[in-house]
Amino acid sequence: MDLRAAIQRSFDDRYTRHARNSLDELPDSFTITDPHIPGHPIVFASPGFLKLTGYARSEVLGQTAAVFQGPCTSRRSVMEIREAVREERNTQVVLLNYRRDGTPFWMLFGVCPVFGDGGAVVHFVAVQVPLHKKERSGVRDFGFGCCRKEVCSDSLSELGRVCSLEQVLERDVIELDREEPSEASDEEKRSAATAMDNIFSVLTHYSEATGRLVCRKRCSIPDVGLLSTSLIISLGRIKQSFVLTNPHLPDMPIVYVSDAFLKLTGYARNEVLGRNCRILGGTDTDTSTLYLIKESIKAEKPCTVRILNYRKDKSSFWNFLHISPVLDASGKVAYFVGVQVEDSNKNDDSHQCLSPEKRQFSVVGAVKVAVRSLSMTAGSSKS
Amino acid sequence: MTRTRVHPEKRKRKKRRLGGNPGLKRCRHHGYSKILSLSHSCPNCTTGGLRKSRQPFAARWAWCAAFRRIKRVPTVVSNYQKDDAGDSTRPVGGCGRNCLKACCIPDAKLPLYAFKKVNGKDLSQRECGELPVAFLDSLLLGEWEDRMQRGLFRYDVTACETKVIPGEYGFVAQLNEGRHLKKRPTEFRVDKVLQPFDENKFNFTKVGQEEVLFQFEASDDGQVQFFPNAPVDVDNSPSFVAINVSPIEYGHVLLIPRIFDCLPQRIDRDSFLLALHMAVEADNPYFRLGYNSLGAFATINHLHFQAYYLALPFPIEKAPTKKIANLNGGVKISELLKYPVRGLVFEGGDTLEDLSNVVSDACICLQNNNIPFNVLISDCGKQVFLLPQCYAEKQALGEVNAELLDTQVNPAVWEISGHMVLKRKKDYDEASEGNAWRLLAEVSLSEERFQEVNDLIFEAIGSDELDDTVQCDKEVDAVNSSAHPTVVVAGSQECVVLQSRVLCIYLYMPLRIVHVEVDEITAHLSSVGDLGYHSA
Fold first, then answer.
1. CA distances (Å), B413 to each of A31, A196, B104, B259, in order?
2. Which residues form the GDPGP1-like N-terminal domain (chain B) (predicted)?
3. Which residue of B has its CA nearest to A39?
4. pLDDT tens-digit profile of A147-183?
5. A291 vs B17: CB contact, 8 Å cut-off?
6. Surface-to-core class of residue A4, CB atoms within 10 Å of its CB (0-12 exposed, 13-18 middle, 19+ buried)
């Protein structure tokens, strides 16, 4: 599958083969996620994590951290993590997660961005340290010991999981709710910090060999025109074909492409990033249409055209293209978004209820919301 | 400047292209240019596009005679709320202008989104945030962008400068100089949370069909359904989602439950559940719904919720909370801490209905006790904030600091949540966490009064079928010993204050004095029991 390949590549592009083995040897529970893949999925899960949660590795890869949360997970803690990811900083929260069998457990959750050579965030590392209950917890100890037992009984079906969840809700959660562990102990905090240190030393070591060094601190100023991680995550939610171009850079290069665009045109991401949309044009592309596009870009007005475009393999297709300016929080044009709909047989669209125009508009809307909102914090320092 | 550099021959070619190519046309009705290479028609024109309009432009606003009577309007949420241009062109038979009146509605076709009612515990397992953009989300964004490109909004909200104010909470400040331009005194008394519906004042049945994005209802067969062109079944009391033509952020819409029933601005269980469903269906943590009661800066007395997108956490969502009660339906109630406005947070619930019922019962209690309040539905319907407020009362009593009054910021649900819409450049430039805090602190009830209001609420949600099942963490005697009559504004002591406040409000609104007496009587009579004052 596409996602599987992307997950594989996300890890292997950065680190040499031995990295996996070394990470596997670490005893800690941690995951690595890639914000550049739509959905910000887990691309690596340590054996400690699998043991703690009771999931198999294949079940975890490609998932988001959300699947481990449940009804009693504090929404505020989740929001704090979401915000840390958006702001590309590290954070530590105490969080209630759920195992595969539905039993909840408290843990100290630490997340830290991994910076690549260009100054961009390439991955996030999340460390989970299970919290041990004080005194009264003799009955239920949420440490490794108890969950190992549960992992052994791996015959739990989905049905069984639901049943046990309900039981847990009735019995345990009320109790859990009452005795929320307010703080992680110093020891637990230390163990989270050590785990993080170990992981980073492995990652740094094995990225050296690929020539794409990663580190814990942003080691260089991000390239101009580089999109923030939060924007990439937001844009990753949009499943249609679109590109973002930056009119403030010479020749208005493409700064973001969606997966659907790559699928439509046959290009790889690194083949289009930094290039002008001209690469889609070809011998039979109508110059008057191109002129029209140019004019509306100059006027900063939206436009819709039907244009003959070419894929990487030189095959042509009619592109029903909508282009719209996207303003940032200061009210100035930051990007142009181009939404492509392949204008082939109508029956292709019939199962989708929204008309092609409305679907294009919905992409424009989602992009506008993401760009506008996410530039509100950065706005003052940028220009 | 670039034009001068264009070669004359090229310019001719361009002219030929634009003139000869049906691709680029300017719609004659709507005064904005739109490139319509595929459809050859203006999406806004019911008459089919590029043909010459039979109606002069100004006549667009003059369809329904009722609009002409409105001379004073609150924040313009619909284009049909504008003052009549004094144009006397009358509609031809059947109105023909796509309003929501009996003349046009039989022919109306509006998209219909029917949501799946989620029952049982699977609801809490639904996690939003990282999933692909959900269908309702795309529908709403797509329709909204469409209306934006058709030019239906009074201003481009994405051109309004916005910033996050540095500080611990991250208050968001927006400079919006356009929204208040046509602002007039609110059309009704501000001292009554419940007032009867008045069909003569602006209400949402008076908007045009193009302002309606879609119909929103529960699906019959338990599946999400979408009909791009559904007839409007007036007898079935459809709920509409319409644009707010004075948006404060991208995607600003109004949810109008059972629009043709003409309900006054008043929470009931069903309507609140509908709003909660919308938050769940949109499945986007950055799409929040809000509610302002009368007296808490609602400007139209026709039941509506507001909603928009802002892909940032609101300060109120970041504030710490302290759990104060666990109800049997699984609903957890907490108190906001370290936030300038005191309020309650409701979350959890075995079913959405559990959560909805508790919150709506709390709101109904506040309504019946004439306490203005705001509600914020956030985190995909998982969290609901309830904030009783007293700004209007303080304002009327002249207790609000003049400096704060000068900003003319109306602390409605969005401002209270931390999204400050500022009208003056000066305030925007000087915006600070301290300023935001000071303003919101004025909105909040005092600690003492808040506790009294809480007691009322707990009594209300406890007195229902939840009665013996409340497992309240609060000391029981604290609930029982509460002297709740003092909170009720209608109490004898406060009644005097109330009367004088009414006077001072209406003193500078001489036009409205005529109404006062009538309203006063009806409101007094009706505030006790069911309003039941629906227009036919």
1. 39, 41, 34, 22
2. 136-308
3. B130
4. 333 333 333 333 333 334 444 444 344 444 444 556 7
5. yes
6. exposed
B124 and A70 within 8 Å at the Cβ level: the answer is: yes
Residue type, A9: R
- Closest residue of A to B34, CA-based? A303
Amino acid (one-letter) located at B279: A
CATH code for residues A2-208: 3.30.450.20
Q: Is A62 left (phi over 0), alpha (psi -120 to 50) or beta?
A: left
Distance CA B380, CA B282 (A): 7
End-to-end CA separation in angstroms for chain B? 60
CB contact under 8 A, B163 and A379: yes
Torsion of CA A41, A44, A46, A52, to 10 degrees: 20
pLDDT tens digits for B102-116? 888 888 888 888 887
For B21, the closest chain A residue by CA position comes to A288
Q: Does the CA dihedral B391-B396-B398-B404 come out positive or negative?
A: positive
Q: Is A377 close to B312, i.e. CB distance below 8 A?
A: yes
pLDDT per position as a tens digit, B294-340: 999 998 999 999 999 999 999 999 999 998 988 888 899 999 999 99
Mutate one of B24, B143, B158 to test the A interface: name it (highest A CB count within 10 A): B158
Using an 8 Å Cβ cutoff, are A260 and A240 in contact?
yes
Nearest CA in chain B to A295: B14
Domains in chain B (CATH in brackets) are: 20-54 (no CATH), 109-528 (3.30.428.70)
pLDDT in tens, B340-367: 999 999 998 889 999 999 999 999 999 9
List phi, psi (to 5°) of A9. -65, -40
Strands A242-245 and B212-218, by their bridges, are unpaired
Q: How far off is chain B from A358, nearest CA to CA, in Å?
A: 5
Report chain B residues whose CB lies below 8 A from the CB of A72: 348
Contacts of B164 in chain A (CB under 8 A): 376-377
CB A20 within 8 A of CB A11: yes
Average pLDDT over residues B273-284: 93
A chain contacts of residue B142, beta-carbon cutoff 8 Å:
354, 358-362, 365
**Residue A349 identity:** D
The C-alpha atoms of residue B141 and residue B308 are separated, in whole angstroms, by 10
- Residue in chain A lying closest to B378 (CA): A75
pLDDT of residue B50: 37
d(CA A339, CA B146): 14
Query: Which of the residues of B are catalytic?
Result: 304
Torsion of CA A161, A167, A168, A173, to 10 degrees: 150
This complex has an ipTM of: 0.75
d(CA A195, nearest CA chain B) in Å:
26
Sequence ranges of chain A with CATH classification 3.30.450.20: 2-208, 229-382
Minimum distance, in Å, between the CA of residue B515 and any CA atom of chain A: 43
**C-alpha to C-alpha distance for B152 and A44, rounded to whole angstroms:** 48
Q: Tell me the C-alpha distance between A3 and B147, whole Å.
A: 36
pLDDT attached to residue B183: 54
Contact residues on chain B for A365, CB-CB shorter than 8 A: 140-142, 144-145, 250-251
A66/B145 Cβ within 8 A: no
Give how far A252 is from chain B: nearest CA, Å: 18
Please report the number of interchain residue pairs, chain A to chain B, with beta-carbon separation below 8 angstroms: 170
Pick from B2, B130, B140: which is nearest to A40 by CB? B130
Residue B513's identity, in one-letter code, is I
Residues of chain A contacting residue B228, judged by C-beta atoms under 8 Å apart? 353-355
| Structural contact between residues B419 and B306, judged by C-beta atoms closer than 8 angstroms | no
